[in-house]
Amino acid sequence: MKEKLTRHDRQETVDTGEHDPLTEVIAAHDALRAADRRLHRAVRAARSAGETWEVIGETLGITRQAAYQRFGRAGERSDTGLAPLPDAADRSVRILVDLTEGRWPAVVSRFSPRMAGAVDATRLAAVWAELTDSIGRYEGIGTTFVRRIGRHTVVDVAVRCEAGDATLRVAYDDGGAIAGLLVLPVAQT
Fold this sequence. Notes:
- The chain has 189 residues and is an alpha+beta fold.
- It has nine helices and four strands; from the N terminus they run αααααααααββββ.
- A four-stranded antiparallel β-sheet has the order 1-2-3-4.
- β1 and β2 form a beta hairpin.
- The radius of gyration is 18 Å and the shape is globular.
- The two termini are 35 Å apart.
- 21% of the residues are buried.
């Protein structure tokens, strides 16, 4: 029943002396999200103070276009004017955890009808096995990047694996169902 535990339940498990390996993952992800929110506030403050996207990008070691896409208004809303799903980053991390722990039915249960018709739990397990053969075992999670693209909320989750880094890309429909699921080597993102 580990997959049904809430953050509060996990904390209780740790407090009673039981070891839950995902507690550290959750804590690190929470800290990462807090740092990401702080970075967004700092970028907004820098823009309000008149800094250009070029200067902000240089400061962050990225291009001005990448800075604008990540922090600018275009990265926050799509041409539809709709904001991304508010819990999309957390959903995507849970999907990554389910994938790494082999909980295929849990992932498939979140698929849209079209996705579920194309990929069942057996197929998902086979694809994941092929993927881990090529990039190695999961080792850690990095930043998440959420944006709205047309009718979908798209989340990229940076993933560290034995043989290199990858990006888990999850697309959600407006109902929160998974409409697309990809794992890309970093060079392809």
